[in-house]
Amino acid sequence: MNRIFVDGDTKQWVGALAAFTLLVFLSSCGGGGSTTPPPTTGLTVNGTVTVPTGTPRSRSLTGAALPNASVRAVLAFSPDTVIAQSTTDSDGRYALTFPPDYAGRDLLILAEKTINNQRVRVSALLPALPPQGYAGANLDAYTTLATEEILRFAREQNLTALSPNGVATVVERIREIMRNRYQLSLVVGETLPENIGEGLLEEELRNQIRPRVQEQGQNLRPSTGDVATAKQITQMLRDYSAVWLDRSDSEALRLEQAVREQEQILKEQIAQPLESFFERGLNLVFRVLGWDAPGGSDPYESLRGLPPGRYREVQYKLERVGDAADNRTWIVTSGSFTCTVTTNNPLSEFEFTPDAGRVSFSLRKAGDPSVRHDGSFEVTQRDSQNRATQLRVQFTLSDSGLRQPIQFNGVANTTPRADGSFRTVNLTGTLQSQYADLNVTNLIYDTYPISERVKQISAARVQATLKSEPSLTLNLQNLNLTFADGNPPEKQLTQLTVQSLNFNGMRSTLILNSLNAQFQRVGGEAQPTRLQANAEYRTPNDTLVGQIHLQWNNPTGLNPLEQDTIPLEQFPKGNFEFNGSLTPRVGRPALVYFNIVSEPDYAMPRVRIQLRLDLGSARLEGSFTGDLRIVNGCVERTNMFQVAALQMTHTPSSFRLQLNYNAQGRAFTGAIKKPDGSAVAQIGKASALGLPDLGEAYVVRYTDNTFETVNSLVWFED
After folding, report:
1. For residue 470, is the peptide bond before it cis, meaning its omega torsion is within 30 degrees of 0?
2. Can you give the pLDDT at residue 24?
3. Domains and CATH numbers, the chain
């Protein structure tokens, strides 16, 4: 008698079908959250409003969102006329929309809220509003203190315009001096004046902050000539940091939070209900038919090899208790459940064989007529040797605990081996349930002829929707996974290709086209050695689009970023290239290109980077070269380079930004130079640039004797 399945193949096919369905149910993740509704017309500014924890009188300067606060925008030097207003949402976010003719003007953003009968005010200055609007105009304690004293200084000096460089540097300097302060009041009439711009009321605080504003007095004035051009370059770095680095970091945090939220949602809305559903009796069907029940680990006995009759399950063992009505029926009772298995044709013992014809099962529960689990497996085509070449599968599972039945209908075309087991299985089917909907077209499972290990898994199309709240959807076209012939099969992946992947969830959409990844087994795991794809990632606030190319020539099975010291032979060798854009819903689009080439086996081990940054109509383009610092044959992750140099050219000015690093003293030096080589600004430690009061802080000092701190441009640690 030829068998349709040997034991292993039965688990491979039917178990794979069940596992694939459960994988779609359980393995995806996403997240929820709220967002400020997008504006419809005009020029937009958005950001967040945070206050010290415990406001109005805080005991910590750690920021907390200020929800339901009134937000308004005024001209910085005409604060009596409101030009836009809004309210913060539950996460402290706001959005303001202006007519386009406010581009280039200096704005003042104010947020107010009455807490415990005291009026709290938070503010920030936004000089020279860009014509595309501005994303990330955040209001906090530091911007508030800076705003009060900057406006007082500006009125005292009869200024009619402010420099973004000076404002940003004042805020950063205040942030530095407030590091050790643990108490602050933002109450109007206590710390803040009734009329904004009259200066801080608290004497101690005023004496700390007013000198920081005065030292930036010249920098607060808009510059002219070459210095203005140099400051445009530093402001571009500041804006790029806000648009790209800050938003990507914030997006990573948002995504991490969303994943945690969705994991909990999936656990509560899908995983736990499914587990309860199987425990309500369906596990008995799996045991009776000889399949591995999801989540089951106890040894059990199935009907395989047993003659028709009535059986009772006791401690997962089957005891014969009588005869069935005919030699086509097997009946198993377990507690209040009864599972009945029938075959079209009579058999002397139960087995999945072509001679059985159609194999059907039903599960019922005494005293609960709502439990109706029915299904069948039917051989619909055979070859000349009576081996199954096509199998039709259908089941409907329903009980009072389900809002709708779980239904599956599918056809599997197979290529049999000589013993009747399957070499390939090609499944097309549809599953519908309250938990998920799944459609698969030509899902092919192919094995090696001799070892019978998986050789290839492919699918023409996979569509899946997890019906959690919020829901998740996945659409795959032309998926192909190739495996080497070895054990364990799941660690033998050699190649992955996807024509298109579209994942929608976590308040975001990920689209991958022409994905091609190659793998090599290292340290018992499949490690990627080559990867290329066209990627698009959409969130409510941004759209990131780009091309990715990765080549890793010496995968080690270790993550270098998790090692404090990296042996030189394990230091990654290869290159990573990205060419793309970040388009915010509000603000200027940013373009970025970089190609990182790591050459640890070069005569002088090094890393080279080609880099291009575009922000609006301006561009910085150049290269970075770093010689690896080798200590006892290793590279220290936190002090990686012996010497390094960055050179970038600004368009349209042709000014050059140069930065050099030397591990001896861990010091940076640099300059901004005109095309003729003359310096317009020097970059280095303040003490070395004639600013001893700032000590070892890094600054950019211009030829007009103004300066700004490097920390106000990008996040920088010595």
Report:
1. yes
2. 32
3. 43-222 (2.60.40.1120), 507-664 (no CATH)
